[in-house]
Amino acid sequence: MIAEPFAPRSLAPGGVVRVQWLGTAGFAIEHAGTVVLIDPYLTRASLRRCLLDRLVPDAVAIARHAPRADAIIAGHTHFDHALDIPAIALRTGATVLGSRSAVALCRASGVPLARVRDIEPAPGGEPVVAEVGPFHLRFVPSAHSRLLLGRVPFPGDISDCDQIPRRAGRYRCGAVFAVEIRVAGRLLVHLGSAELVEAGLGRTEPDLLLLCVAGWTASRDFPERVARALSPRAVLFSHWDNFFLPLERPAVALPAVQGARLAERLARASRDVKLGVLPLLGEVWI
Ligand SMILES: [Zn+2]
């Protein structure tokens, strides 16, 4: 176990923002009837399917676990972040916010372009911001963990997106974003890969950091850099679960994830930070 599970009301007894973990780096964040999804990956194809087949979103899992969305954010476009985004957008009518690779995926899947927004800034430009109901979103260019023998898996952009469905390896990484989410006076930050680019982040002291665990040991001094750059009040660990297993089963940690060591180093590098996990589909309020 990486850390003890957060009880739903453990971070703020009067919390008004609901944060539900969808497995991997996926979250549903809801306030006052508006729902923002980040990196929702509900299909959780088996390892065999990922190796052998073109990946098709699981419509039943999507209908069950992502029934509503006003906006869907793609932090990057690896399959375990982006596979389900076009299908959820088509089903819910949500707007998609993502890289040019995410835009290409949505276009090829038939999502109306009026509901797809490219959040890559112009070279040298400021991070893109967006409003979704009561949510204020800011997309800070970030980086992906070099978790595959010192390299980013499936690097590059998706530009040749003429064929859907496609194999797992053709979901190239695309641009990577850290996402700042301001709503109801709270600040959440989502890091969907275990790497960060300090320059754009500022010491924002988020009320809750949604932190990817997978591949963190490949990023030098990762826990200390996270603590120094962000100074979060609470950290909810994500992307530590074996996502080749279905959502209905209890989460099983990925091999060699070393979550306890990450938690220990984060706690040592921070002051009074609360660290926790959620069960699959569990929720916490802030
Ligand atoms: Zn990735």
Automatic annotation (TrEMBL):
InterPro entries the UniProt entry points to: Metallo-B-lactamas, RibonucZ/Hydroxyglut_hydro, UPF0173_UPF0282_UlaG_hydrolase
Record domain Metallo-beta-lactamase: where: 23-239
Pfam family for this entry, one: Lactamase_B_3
Protein name: Metallo-beta-lactamase domain-containing protein
Species assigned in the record: Sorangium cellulosum (Polyangium cellulosum)
